[in-house]
């Protein structure tokens, strides 16, 4: 179980670390700091969608590889959803209350093409923005850290999204693309995501990376299928200020 792996990694991690909040079912949401505690900071999030739990394993790899900047890695934002996906409903994306966390942020909340108020495996926006403990915890933590950039790792499609509402930093997306070879794209018809909120409300660069070829099937279960993403954060922090 990926949640058990993240828990064990956290227990043995010797760097700065914290619990940023708890899931609907009381599971811890962990954050671990890498790099310098001074200068530019980033936040990287994995496991936003339950069936995309492989991005939590990817996040642990990011911690192990380290990076030039300092920043926090949150391997598994949606531990309940990951457990549901791994034990009973493989295609489950939402949290335990049937709310899609990446539709629950206050960025044109509820205006997405596929948004629904019906709770279930995906696309439910919740009762109001940040109604869910997981998304609320991430928003609070992001405001507290005040990062220069955020990354959200999802699956799948081999694409990088960088823009929302006509704003964003395409240059950073191009640097990510240099590392993994993914297409840099704008996305339409999608609202309420973490990237969307970071760009529109906080005015910071934010990227959604859809890991793995679109030829793969959900859920992706092997880290080797998204190995091209392992060095993204390291590459970004080493090259961003050179460009």
Write a concise synopsis of the structure shown:
The protein is an alpha/beta fold and 243 residues long. It has 7 helices and 10 strands. The chain has one domain (2-163, 175-242): 3-Layer(aba) Sandwich (Aminopeptidase).
Report on the architecture of this protein.
The protein has 243 residues and is of the alpha/beta class. It has a single domain (2-163, 175-242), classed as Zn peptidases (Aminopeptidase). Helices cover 30% and strands 19% of the residues. It is built from seven helices and ten strands. It has helices at 2-12, 54-65, 79-87, 133-145, 170-180, 194-202, 232-239, and strands at 17-22, 28-34, 41-45, 70-74, 149-155, 159-161, 163-164, 167-168, 183-185, 205-211. The strands form two sheets. Strands 1-2-4-3-5-10-6-9 form an eight-stranded mixed sheet, with helices on both faces. The chain has a two-stranded antiparallel sheet with strand order 7-8.
Total DSSP E strands: 10
CATH superfamily: Zn peptidases
- In whole angstroms, the N-to-C terminal distance is 40 Å
Give the fraction of residues assigned to helices.
Answer: 25-40%
CATH topology: Aminopeptidase
What class, by secondary structure content?
alpha/beta
Question: How much is the average pLDDT?
Answer: 96
Quaternary structure type: single chain
Percent in strands:
15-25%
Q: Give the C-alpha Rg.
A: 16 Å
CATH class: Alpha Beta
User: What string, H for helix and E for strand, traces the elements in order?
Assistant: HEEEHEHHEEEEHEHEH
Instruction: Categorize the overall geometry.
Output: globular
Task: Characterize the main sheet.
Answer: 8 strands, mixed
Which regions contain 5 or more consecutive residues with pLDDT less than 50?
none
Total count of helical runs of at least 4 residues: 7
């Amino acid at each position: 179980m990926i949640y058990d792996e993240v828990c064990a990694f956290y227990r043995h991690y010797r760097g700065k670390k914290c619990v940023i909040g708890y899931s609907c079912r009381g599971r811890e949401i962990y954050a671990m700091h890498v790099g310098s505690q001074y200068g530019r900071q980033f936040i990287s999030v994995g496991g936003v969608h339950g069936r995309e739990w492989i991005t939590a394993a990817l996040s642990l790899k990011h911690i192990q590889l380290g990076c030039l900047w300092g920043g926090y890695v949150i391997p598994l934002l949606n531990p309940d959803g990951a457990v549901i996906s791994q034990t009973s409903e493989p295609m489950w994306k939402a949290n335990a209350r049937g709310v899609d966390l990446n539709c629950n942020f206050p960025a044109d909340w509820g205006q997405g093409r596929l948004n629904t108020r019906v709770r279930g495996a995906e696309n439910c926006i919740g009762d109001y923005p940040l109604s869910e403990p997981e998304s609320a915890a991430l928003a609070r933590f992001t405001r507290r850290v005040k990062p220069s950039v955020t990354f959200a790792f999802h699956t799948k499609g081999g694409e990088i999204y960088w823009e929302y509402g006509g704003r964003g930093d395409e240059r950073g997306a191009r640097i990510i693309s240099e590392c993994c070879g993914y297409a840099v794209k704008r996305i339409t018809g999608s609202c309420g995501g973490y990237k969307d909120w970071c760009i529109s409300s906080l005015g910071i660069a934010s990227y959604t990376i859809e890991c793995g070829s679109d030829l793969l099937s959900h859920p992706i279960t092997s880290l080797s299928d998204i190995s091209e993403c392992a060095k993204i954060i390291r590459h970004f922090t080493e090259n961003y200020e050179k460009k």
